[in-house]
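Slack export, channel: ligand-projects

TW: morning all. Re-posting the request from yesterday since it got buried. We need the structure predicted with the small molecule present, not the apo form. The ligand is S-adenosylmethionine; the SMILES is in the block with the sequence. No rush, but it would help planning for next week.
GE: picking it up
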Amino acid sequence: MVNPPQIIHADFFAYQREIPSDFVDLVISDGPFGVTTQAWDRPGNIQQFNLELIRIFSRILKPGGSAYLFGKPDCIDFIDYRPHLQLNAKIIWYQPSRLAQGRINYTNNYDIIAYFSKGNASTFNLEDIRVEQLVELEHRKRCENVPSVKNGTYGRTMFNPKGKNPGDVWGDIKQLTYRSKELLDRKYLNTIQKPEKLMERLILASSHPGDLVLDPFAGTGTVLKVAHRLDRNAWGVEQDEKLIQAIHKRLGLG
Ligand SMILES: C[S@@+](CC[C@H](N)C(=O)[O-])C[C@H]1O[C@@H](n2cnc3c(N)ncnc32)[C@H](O)[C@@H]1O
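GE: finished. pasting the full token output, ligand included:
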């Protein structure tokens, strides 16, 4: 039995002091990127801001717990996170449909989701996040004939009929558009609301039913909604009163 999602109306940096150490199984942090003109998106130096978050996550995570930190390609450049958390992957969330309007450089069309853990990750549920193999039979056969090296010995590369590891470039989950049924309001498009499928993959991979999932920047409550549906305990912190109301409505909490 999981508890109803906890929605906390607060500034995360102030609130986090009340969270005990070694307490949280999974953090999903989709906070400021420092790229828009919205008041909440002006973190100053984004790398220093993210380092402060990483320090906090390191304290509140259980040993082996995981944290996903969303940002732009440079979001953790030139900071030393290694004393605090282990970086396991920099997932690229590729959005080919992002408007390519740049004139003097290549337009950025991906976000980073930096995947950290406190020591080695204790949970990685690959079986729950496999994705379809998009290879034709001929190619598949060819792959199976290419030996793979495991512990120094050669073996057949096996095609797994249940699907493959999603890898670290995710182009299969689209950002919401104004037509998406799950979009709560057009004003949340692009900068705020994220697709449920994206949060679902992170939650399934890095937590178990009954675990505690924390979203320090809850926005419209996507993580809370999906985590609850997947039988995880969910806590979300959000500083904007209007979004707190939107979360209550979305989760049917009156
Ligand atoms: C990108 S949005 C999160 C969107 C969310 N993942 C969703 O799907 O709806 C970031 C949110 O962080 C909130 N925020 C920014 N700084 C905060 C802080 N210090 N404490 C709590 N919330 C904050 C903003 O109000 C904004 O709603």
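GE: first-pass observations. The domain at 6-129+165-250 is CATH 3.40.50.150 (Rossmann fold). The beta strands are 6-9, 24-29, 61-71, 86-94, 110-117, 147-150, 153-156, 169-170, 212-215, 233-238.
TW: perfect, thank you
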